[in-house]
Amino acid sequence: MPDWNRTLSMPFHTIKLPKFLFAGLFGSCTIFIPLSFKQDIGAIENLILFALVFALINAILEEVIWRGVMLSSLRDNVSPLYAVCVTSIGFGLLHLSIGMPLLTSLLFSFGGLFYAIVVLKTNSLYPAITFHIIINLGMVLNGWIL
């Protein structure tokens, strides 16, 4: 579990862990904005179970593999910057290999970068898993993942 009293040091400022996590949670929740423009809400009701199952399983497995196993293993053997870069690029390439467009995969690399920073700054996978679940839920409910 994260140390809730911890202050995180960034390159140009410091921030308390709860504020950092709230900012990440707020940013992750923006994925739901397109839902407010949907007219046919009935289709969303049919996707809720799929969205929940997909979001939970996918987020947990990806975070455990990419940030839990790979990032921590690389960090033990190379610099943290190198470990973050390799796992972030690999995360994007994984999505490219399953048929996502190049631009989307590049955005996933930036997501992997964000998740890696969250894990390194909080010393916990739980916040990254939570943010990842929210993003996955939004992507499924917006029809971007079916």
From TrEMBL:
InterPro entries: CAAX_protease, Rce1/LyrA-like_dom. Signal peptide: none annotated. The chain crosses the membrane at residues 20-37, 43-66, 78-96, 125-145. Residues 46-137 form the CAAX prenyl protease 2/Lysostaphin resistance protein A-like domain. Keywords: Hydrolase, Membrane, Transmembrane, Transmembrane helix. Its EC number is 3.4.-.-. One of its GO terms (molecular function) is hydrolase activity. It comes from the Bacteria. This is CPBP family intramembrane glutamic endopeptidase. It comes from Fictibacillus iocasae. The lineage of its organism: Bacteria, Bacillati, Bacillota, Bacilli, Bacillales.
